[in-house]
Each structure stands twice: as structure tokens, then as C-alpha cells.
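mind reviewing both lines:
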Amino acid sequence: MPNIILVSAVYPPEPVVSAQMSRDLANHLAHRGARVTVLCPFPSRPIGADYSQFSPGAQRQVDYEDGVTVVRLPSFRSPQSGLLPRMRESLSFGRQVGRYLKQQTAAVDVLYANTWPMFSQFLIARRCAQLGIPLVLHVQDIYPEALRDKLPRWGWGTVGPAGKVLDQWIARQAARVVVISENMQRTYREDRRIPAACVTMIHNWQDEERFASLPSRTEACSRYGVSPNRFSFVYLGNIGPVAGVDLLIRTFAQARINNAQLLIIGGGSARVASEELTRRLGAEHIVFISDPDARQVPVLQSMAHICLLPIKRGAGMSSIPSKLPAYLFSAKPVLATVDAESDTARTILDAGCGWVEEPENVAALTHRMRKASQLTGAELDHLGQRGRAYGLRHLSKAQGVRKLAEAILSAPPCQPMN
């Protein structure tokens, strides 16, 4: 019986896709006979969620869930966006994981880490190297490149080169690096110079069974007090600095599409600014909806005629947003504004389930939204069904969790390179 430790920066009841994936993985490994221990922080996301059943303090909390031991560590948490608090969060969680590992007496066969970049990754990789624990590192976004647009030019000139050296060192300590897109795979093989045998690409997944029985659009709109008679563009996800929700608001206000509405569903650091922008523009028929219950995502997306996926220029080059599989499983056409070379653009075009426009181009998006709103119900349904079929072939939980489990259980004995 292999003894496996799963380190996850988020974990249910947090309704974050990475949290759901970690639980899927833990349960799958436990059902295959592994002894599984999950190390995670106390829940904190999204902002405003009620986690009163937990009592974060100076002590660990141990629970047993479906054959899995879940150890919540008393690390600093920062659900609010901010570079310095997030750095502290990463550092704190990494230290707590390191202390836990140092205190273990039972041999650990493999450690899987889906954790905060880059300090948490560094501390965990260093501890695994010290203790001789094989490490499988799951990378959700490439750092320091993901910081490029958040730093001044002089800051990037200092942080960029040093960060790449650190990221390369972290990756070289791993027996296997799991990435979520082809562009990320190329970066680790060619730029970070990680041996090809140690880099595995596995797409993030959504549980397709959650989308197997969807309510009618009229019923879904009724649940949330939304007009079912208007053509609905829907954005569902984090309203953060790289999400591009401001582009949607400006475009919808300018497009003035007859009998249409824009539904913006979610929370995040840029939500208040987005609501203020809507008021300042005097934009009508833009509705903000909050529902932190991840189980309601299929219902919320059922209100859509078209799902929107905006990403700031350059921000979506290294990963596929977790909302894309959910959009596909909801059988909705997808209109994205992303870099043409991104994996997201490639997925939408390969699936034939929607449209890809240039990021941050209001004129192009306005034209596309107007044209798309003129499609018939049958045409929209055809696009949506093509997306669902593609999602089932490539982005399903059934395939993803099996592939990730195999990557962990068969991690190659690559020697750490110092």
C-alpha cells in the first residue's frame, strides 16, 4: 500500500476548481488502495464564504473524509489579491508543509504538490530533496512570467531572470512535472530545460457528471430572477485583474444589442470596480450575480445563450482557464478574447464551438457579439454540442484523474539536479 501525501493550496469546501481536482485525485488514489494524506490550509476562498465550522488557530486540524486523512495546517491565508500578502501566504504554507514532513516517521512513497508559487514550491521541493521523497509537481501557471504585467518594467528586469532560475531549480528537484497545456510543456522542456521524460501534460478537468442533467434556460433564469426573454451573454468566474471583465462591460454598453443582457457571475478583487464602471457608463441590462456554491455552476451557465471568456493580452498564454471545460460541458458556444497562439484559442477552434477574437479589442468584440446574437437557437445548439463532445473526449474527470494518478504512481526516478 503506497503512502502518498497530497499537498493542495486549496481544498473543499472551497469551490475552486483546483480544490475539487485535489479531492477527486485523493479519492481516486484511496479507492485504488493507497494510503492518502492531504495537507492543505484552512479554507478562505472565495472572500465572504461562510467557513464558521472551522476554527483556524495555532494547531492543525485532522479530519477523515472518504478514506482520506485531511490535515489542515495553520498557515497565513490571503484570499484578497495583493502581491505581498500572496507572497506571505505562499511562504507560510510552504513552511508548514515542511515542518509536517520533517516530523513524519513513516516512509513517504511520493509527494504530489499543487501549491502556491514560488516560495511554497521552493520550500516543499527543498524538503523533499532533503528527505529523499519523490516529488510530483503540478504547475497551474508559469512563474515568474505570470507576474510580468503586475510589475513595473524595472521590477521585471530584476525579478524575471532571478525567478526563472528559481523556477528551473524547483522543477529540477521533481521526479515529474505535470503541466496543463502544450505551451507550458514547451516552456519547461525548452526554456527550463527539464528532461522530456520528466514533463507530463494533463489538462485540468471538470466533473462532467455535474452537467449531465441541466435545467431549462427558463427554469434557471427563474431561480436567479433573470429575464428569460433576453438574449444572454454570460461570464462566470473570478472577477480579477487579468479576467478582462471591464472589456465585456465596455463592449456590451457600446454594442447596444437589441433585447440582450450581460450576466456577470462571481466575485473577486475587481468586482466593485466593475460595478462602478457599469454605473459610470450608464450601461443597462448588465446584471451581477453572486453564488459561491460551486454545485450551482451548471444551473448558472444554463442561463446563457453564449458564454464569454475574456483574458488580458499575454495573460492566457500558458494555461487553459478552468471555466472553459465547464462552458463546454454546459453545451454553450464560447466567445473568447485571447491570444491567438494560446492553448485556449486552439481548444475553441479545434472543438469548433465558438469564436476567438483579439484581446482588449472593443471594436472586434462588439462586431462578434452583434453577429453571434443573430444566430438561431438551432445554430447555437449545434455549436454547443460540438463543444460538449470535445470536452468529453479531452477534458473529462474520468480521463484526467486517471492520467494524473498514473503520473503520480509511476513517477520516473529522475535524479534531482542541483
